[in-house]
Amino acid sequence: MDARSEKQERWDRRMETPLMVSSLLYLAGYAVRVLAPHLAQVWLDLCLAVTLSAWAVFVVDYAVRFRLSGLGPLRFVRSHFLGTVVVLLPLLRPLEMVKIYERVQRRRDQPRLTLYARVMAYSSLTVALLGFAGALAVYQRERGAPGATIRTFGDSVWWAAETLTTVGYGDVTPVTPVGRTIAVGLMACGIALLGAVTGSFSSWLIQTFTREDEKRPPGDFPGA
Amino acid sequence: MDARSEKQERWDRRMETPLMVSSLLYLAGYAVRVLAPHLAQVWLDLCLAVTLSAWAVFVVDYAVRFRLSGLGPLRFVRSHFLGTVVVLLPLLRPLEMVKIYERVQRRRDQPRLTLYARVMAYSSLTVALLGFAGALAVYQRERGAPGATIRTFGDSVWWAAETLTTVGYGDVTPVTPVGRTIAVGLMACGIALLGAVTGSFSSWLIQTFTREDEKRPPGDFPGA
Amino acid sequence: MDARSEKQERWDRRMETPLMVSSLLYLAGYAVRVLAPHLAQVWLDLCLAVTLSAWAVFVVDYAVRFRLSGLGPLRFVRSHFLGTVVVLLPLLRPLEMVKIYERVQRRRDQPRLTLYARVMAYSSLTVALLGFAGALAVYQRERGAPGATIRTFGDSVWWAAETLTTVGYGDVTPVTPVGRTIAVGLMACGIALLGAVTGSFSSWLIQTFTREDEKRPPGDFPGA
Amino acid sequence: MDARSEKQERWDRRMETPLMVSSLLYLAGYAVRVLAPHLAQVWLDLCLAVTLSAWAVFVVDYAVRFRLSGLGPLRFVRSHFLGTVVVLLPLLRPLEMVKIYERVQRRRDQPRLTLYARVMAYSSLTVALLGFAGALAVYQRERGAPGATIRTFGDSVWWAAETLTTVGYGDVTPVTPVGRTIAVGLMACGIALLGAVTGSFSSWLIQTFTREDEKRPPGDFPGA
């Protein structure tokens, strides 16, 4: 068991940089194909190759992890749920990137950010990356659809922003079934984002509260 | 009193599976009638029969519980408020199903999910089931209404999703009084959902916070 | 000082029922005038008289409290901020009614609701009353306005519900300056409502969390 | 090091009033130029001069702080991130004003507001000022744009209110790229506002909760 977890640890460390680079390449390749469809064919083919290679890296990494874990397929899928989703839908990769960044940070023994700041930074980064990926995917589906209100990539980014913050003006909205399915995913992220912001603010406040309370003579009730 | 609570306990255990199956049958029967109105009459009648039988099970269960409790009608209604609502509006049944599932889990002594994960799982499941039931009910009311924007069941699901997340684009909205009443119920659920997500995130964070704090030398203030 | 606070106490107790009745009469009188403008003139006059009498009760109560407090006008306004607002805008009266109800409850020594349930009940009641008052006020302003989308009282209630839950479809929205000002007030209440729901859920969860933690052997981290 | 921090302290104190006045002048000058573009040229020039002078005060203050800190440019920017943003985008100045107000309050040894009330007051003030600045900036960009729905300053304020509360009716929305970028900033503030309100409510509730719990015999579980 110890030898196994040591091997897993070594694999984790070795794959950090490749996985991060692959994630960025995947997103970049996908973005170019969506945003510049009138590029010369050779460039589009190159982008497709980059995207598929990046995906291949994810699949290989997943397979190796499966082998190293020594678990049955079902139990592995259950205990690596996020990883499984991300292999099937690589546009959700940003969710993993954040984890890798954290792991790198931890090992370098840098003065770590405090928990509150970390939660804010991670949720902001995750939201920005997911919003960008979501805007790309929705734009790809919607731009040709009849009756679409999302016509430019700018519209799509604007739509992603109002969805993630749960503002939802409704001036531009997806009309295709696939676009709406992606939208539901983004809405769920928006609620999680709200939860993260509110939760970290609330816990920070409670901490400060408790400290002020301890310094004060009792009886002077805060908020009363 | 002890004999009574023992009887109640036995009834609870005996009714678990029947109630769960009835709940699913009720929802399935209702869904078929709403979504496939052009089915042969015999099938529609069958669905109606299934729906009504399921409802009968709920009513009988409610009546037995009333008898077993030994309370007066008013006090029973007050102490079983959710149960009473659910007998009258069986589409809200999913709220109860979650409770049954929990009870089953508890007795089997499985390694229980941690509280945080449980809250997330229950609120997700409840929201999904209520959203589905709400989308069905609104679709049934709206599809024939003049000036309706909810014309397909897909529209209705899309509308339920943007309502529960409080995004509210407003591209499709109910226009009939009954549809709007159901919508207000879904909005309330959406706020409760936000509260559940935020609350569990916040409490998880506070726990982690406190632990990190204990490990660190004092003076290094988190979030500062 | 003691004699003064005793007098205040006595005044509080004596005014409870009159204030509650006046609040309900004010709202009822206002509602009839807004919702049934084609009633015989004598009835409308009666409603106006009821509304104004109720307002007079509020003003007298405010004046007596000012005298009893023995404070200067400015300090009194500062320490009774909510009361001052409510005297000027009696439609916000529901906010006070909740307080009176609580005071009555407390004295009767009934088994008090637990804090969590109390917060939920009060915020629900306050929100329902404010939503009704807001819907009335907006309907009165909007129904005659050119280009208005709020044309019936049903529209106005529907609009109040989507505003208080921050869903905001935008299918019906106020277009007059006064209507929009009232709307901004309702939005602020909506955010406060969200805060109340989330906050009470979160604190309830933290309590449960802490208890489960204490019962369990340490090391088995919840949410991990 | 001590001499340096003493100098910084002195600078802080000396700049309080000038910075507050400059902030208000900047906002006032900007507001007049946006809202009264048909004023006589001499007044517009005066406003421009006031705006630019206020900006100059911000820049000088920033430069002096940089010198006094004795840090390298990069480290200074990192540790004064908010200050740097505010020098480049002076419309965000309100965020700083709140800080100055707090500092003034603290030194005068007034009976400080309790933490909960302070958080509510600061977030309300910040939100009001940011909403006003955002409404001004969006109005300036949108009023001439083809197809704009924000045509008057009233529309712009109304739009800012529905954005900050995340209601988002969508009856008026920005259509220009710059207007939408400002809107995304306001949405982020809206989420932070929600977090602040919810967080402070939640922490206040938890405090009250804990106190009630201590007074009660154990076993009587709140919220059960």
Structural write-up:
- Four copies of one chain form a homotetramer.
- Chain A is mainly α and 224 residues long.
- Chain A has two domains: 1-92; 113-224, Helix Hairpins (Orthogonal Bundle), CATH 1.10.287.
- Helix content of chain A is 76%, strand content 0%.
- The radius of gyration of chain A is 22 Å and the shape is globular.
- The relative contact order of chain A is 0.08.
- The model of chain A is unreliable at 216-224 (pLDDT under 50).
- Chains in contact: A-B, A-C, A-D, B-C, B-D, C-D.
- The A-B interface holds A 114-117, 119, 163, 166-170, 173, 177, 180, 183-184, 187-188, 190-192, 194-196, 198-200, 202-204, 206-208 and B 154, 158, 161-162, 165-171, 193-194, 197-206, 208-209, 212-213, 221-224.
